[in-house]
């Protein structure tokens, strides 16, 4: 990882969960996109529904990954050169509060959609899921541009890569160490 200390305990759980969630967000985004393209090609409602399902999962995973990275930032881990492993929000768009709020609001809207429908809080002519348009996904008065989501996932993926890489240093054999073989 190139860090002074590997995450351990709670930080290790958060780091492991973070890497998994970033990968999930990426895969869900790609699956949503491929299903949306299939829907545009053949008009099959199942492709549209699967695209919506995958985008919902992408948003949920994206939200969780952002929260995990923010929590991991609080542990203060450093790279080998002494620079913080996770930068401050001003230096990383995806953990800035406006981005976090935008993703969180969409996640909340998805999570509470059923209650809103059943409770009569959703207009009768409203869509019953995320609407996947040409350049953005929307639900009620909320929207996420695909270009933004892709950029945020890319930013998160950079740090997932740092946390999941293992580097070995090869050097002369240690002397005076008992051989367990």
């Amino acid at each position: 990882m190139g860090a002074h200390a590997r995450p351990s305990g709670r930080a290790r759980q958060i780091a492991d969960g973070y890497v998994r969630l970033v990968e999930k967000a990426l895969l869900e985004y790609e699956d949503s996109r491929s299903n949306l393209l299939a829907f545009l090609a053949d008009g099959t409602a199942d492709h549209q529904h699967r695209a919506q399902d995958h985008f919902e999962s992408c948003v949920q995973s994206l939200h969780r990954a952002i929260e995990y990275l923010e929590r991991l930032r609080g542990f203060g881990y450093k790279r080998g050169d002494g620079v913080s492993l996770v930068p401050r929000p001003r230096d990383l768009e995806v953990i800035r509060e406006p981005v976090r709020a935008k993703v969180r609001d969409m996640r909340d809207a998805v999570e509470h959609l059923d209650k809103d429908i059943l409770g009569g809080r959703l207009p009768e002519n409203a869509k019953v899921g995320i609407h996947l348009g040409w350049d953005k996904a929307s639900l009620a008065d909320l929207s996420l541009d695909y270009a933004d989501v892709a950029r945020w996932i890319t930013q998160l993926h950079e740090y997932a890569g740092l946390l999941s890489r293992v580097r070995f240093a090869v050097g002369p054999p240690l002397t005076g160490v008992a051989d367990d073989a």
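The beta strands are 131-132, 136-139, 142-145. Helices lie at 10-42, 45-73, 97-111, 113-118, 146-164.
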